[in-house]
Amino acid sequence: DSQRQATKDAGRIAGLEVKRIINEPTAAALAFGLDKQDKTDRKIAVYDLGGGTFDVSIIEIANVDGEKQFEVLSTNGDTFLGGEDFDQRIIDWIIAEFKKEQGVDLSKDVLALQRLKDAAEKAKIELSSSQQTEINLPYVTADASGPKHLNLKLTRSKLESLVEELITRTMGPCQVAMKDAGVSASDIDDVILVGGQTRMPKVQEQVKAIFGKEPRKDVNPDEAVAVGAAIQGSVLAGDRKDVLLLDVTPLSLGIETLGGVMTKMIPKNTTIPTKHAQVFSTAEDNQPAVTIKCFQGEREMASANKLLGEFNLEGIPPSPRGLPQIEVTFDIDANGILHVTAKDKASGKENKITIKANSGLSEDEIQRMVKDAEANAEEDRKLLELVTVRNAADALAHSTKKALDEHGASLDASEKSAIESALKELEEAIKGSDKAAIEAKTEALAKASQKLGEKAYAAEQAKANPGNANPAAEFHLQKDLSLP
Prior knowledge:
Blueprint (H helix, E strand, L loop, with lengths): L1 H12 L10 H8 L10 E8 L4 E11 L2 E12 L4 H20 L7 H17 L5 E12 L2 E10 H13 L2 H11 L8 E5 L6 H11 L12 H13 L6 E6 L4 E5 L3 E6 L4 E2 L1 E7 L8 E8 L9 E9 L11 E7 L5 E7 L5 E5 L8 H13 L1 H31 L5 H19 L3 H14 L1 H15 L6 H11 L3
Parallel strand pairs: 1-6, 3-7
Antiparallel strand pairs: 1-2, 2-3, 4-5, 7-10, 8-9, 8-12, 11-14, 12-13, 14-15, 15-16
Helix pairs in contact: 2-8, 3-4, 3-5, 10-11, 10-12, 10-13, 11-12
């Protein structure tokens, strides 16, 4: 979200109106003309290895009423892996070789390092089309004995051995992306390459090994994204009407509810734009306000996820807990910007928040949060079960207290005493963290207050049907009449 906001702001500063932001893999798929392929649905893998980052996306292109609909099924990557890392491996090798030959450490020479960086990048590019290159840097440095010249030969096989570990690192995100999309390598119809580093033959071999098919090479990988964005521009301008692009949310979005639980409003990998509304209520009697805390992440407890923002909805009319109806709406627009609204249905009071730019997450943070959720799944499940049991116990205790206040006088002293005792024991159990004890005390209170519940129900029925001496008989009569 922060990147999207920053892009819109940068466009505005430059005097442009940003009509729509699309992600790079979708733009690349457009550039390769994959929307012009046969009319059947297709799944595309976009392997994007650029200068500073690596990401892979699985896209589905569906034919909907003659129009091509692009949907990003999943995305994954590594924000600390790119062409610069490949350059650095070459630089480190040059420094080590030069130190062996000349006994001089170039890593401490700032001017020499800049020349090495330029030479490493040039050598890497040349080795994509030739088997060997020469790195020749005269007067690279000097010492007491005079100037030093650097002259080394670097072969493609040597380069491949230097960067093998970096190329292998791209396998993991590819496997995760396919798993998240629910597809296997055999389901992928096309693999397209984006980013200058994908010109390296060894990278292309790795892509073929991962997906089991030759990657497409018919579009300049440096220009693919820009070309795709231009195509989308023509769609927005109305020049093309046969393409529809759909993006996805990388992580689940939700709010904190009773007991600190993360109640998910929009699950991860949901297609955007999207909107979801759900009704919540208050946790206390006569609660005048509620705080809506918005989170992003996969953990069951809100505190373990990333807080995106919070706001208060005030002016709720005094009511018993559970009675007010507060509708919370999560709305993500086509640019991926989140708007959250809370509205009290009774009073019409409303408040909202647009998640600010500083709430964005980098790709590595997203992956860390997903892995964190997987690693703590069992612990989170147990904690969620405890909170759910505790919430149910608290609700029973509250309703029992209320029923005792209203109908306790109609009970025998022994019945009332048994309920009060069970209620006290349950309230003590709720303070602890023993799930089994809370469940046992909840069941005990439910049994003890059974007669109280019957009296409360009868009283409510009598209020609702003042002319009927026997509401149960009326119920059965109505039920019998409805039979065929």
